[in-house]
Design brief:
25 strands; 4 helices; alpha+beta; Immunoglobulin-like; globular; Chondroitinase Ac, Chain A, domain 3; disordered N terminus; 2 domains
Length: 328
């Protein structure tokens, strides 16, 4: 009986150890598939990128017209007499937040691609002369301007003056994604607008917020839609898919729709040129860093591009920005 008990105990212990090992192996496998960032994790990463690129200024509204100069040499002209809070003129200290985006790496990490809205509501790639955010506050309260403000933008930051550039305003949807709508290009006539002269753009802005100096990308080749499959557990809440057009340093497209049934991101507007050489970028969050994968692609009609976990890498914000900016 004693020997039987010893044997039984040994069998039970072995079974317990095997079960424990088996459960741990299953959990490890599940972790590879199921542990994914939340939408909040991903949003926090993008917000951190915006915060890192935010410049701050302070001036006294009693000083009249103010000129601020950004890190990249953009000059911002604000008339203090036009600033209001709840319809009342402002006096005293005013705080200004300013963001300038000239490269597609920064556009990616801040989730500010250059997608312009066409007259029919579809979206297509814009080539940018700079994306800008200007916000004036006093004691945390957002101010308005009754006469707008102006900016001088060095055109050499995006390859020189392009006469086709116009002014666009940023429109952020309920999901926090930004698209651009064109402003009537009537600079100097009381409306917002932009024009290039010499080595800079002159921008006239009617309100604070996001604005962009842009033109639509022009390619005569036939157009198509594309689909992108991302690793399991990712969707449009905790990841994004972007397209970097080879040869264009100041434009970044994104796939702004996602089908939860198929698990596919889509460029469903049919605006991607067949034969286009580009890089498709999958981006998400991993432990406060960026997790990403990049594929060099020549666009074929109705192409489906697939990313797997094994193709992803981890990078800091600075590293990923450099990697994206180094693409062809």
């Amino acid at each position: 009986m004693k020997n039987f008990k010893n044997i039984l105990g040994t069998v039970l212990m072995s079974a317990l150890l095997l079960t424990s090992c088996s459960n741990n192996d299953d959990n490890d496998g599940d972790n590879d598939i199921l542990i994914r960032p939340t939408a909040e994790d991903f949003n926090n990463l993008k917000e951190a990128a915006l915060e890192n690129l935010t410049q701050t200024f302070e001036f006294n509204a009693d000083d009249g017209s103010i000129t601020l100069t950004s890190e990249k040499g953009v000059q911002i002209f604000i008339s203090s007499s036009c600033l209001t809070l709840n319809g009342e003129s402002v006096t005293g200290t005013v705080d200004v937040e300013f963001i300038e985006l000239f490269d597609k790496g920064s556009m990616l990490t801040t989730n500010k691609p250059t997608m312009g809205t066409l007259p029919n509501g579809d979206k297509a790639l814009l080539i940018s002369g700079g994306e800008f955010f200007v916000n004036a506050t006093q004691n945390g309260a957002t101010l308005e301007t009754t006469c707008g403000f102006q900016m001088l933008i060095p055109a050499d930051l995006t390859g020189g003056v392009d006469e086709d550039m116009t002014l666009w305003e940023g429109r952020i949807d309920q999901n926090g994604n930004l698209a651009w709508g064109e402003v009537d290009n009537a600079a100097g006539q009381g409306e917002g607008g932009v024009f290039g002269e010499g080595d800079q753009y002159y921008g006239f802005f009617q309100s604070f917020g996001w604005s962009n100096v842009d033109r639509f990308y022009n390619d005569p080749r036939p157009k198509t839609t594309i689909l992108v499959a991302v690793p399991e557990g990712y969707d449009n809440t905790n990841s994004s898919v972007f397209i970097s057009y080879d040869g264009e340093d100041a434009g970044l497209a994104n796939l702004d729709t996602y089908d939860s049934e198929t698990g596919l991101f889509s460029e469903h507007y049919g605006q991607i040129p067949v034969g286009l050489e580009c890089h498709i970028i999958f981006a998400t969050e991993d432990g406060d860093n960026w997790k990403y994968a990049i594929k060099s692609v020549t666009i074929e009609e109705n192409a489906i591009i697939t990313f797997t976990d094994g193709e992803t890498s981890i990078a800091t914000e600075a590293q990923l920005t450099t990697i994206i900016n180094d693409l062809p």
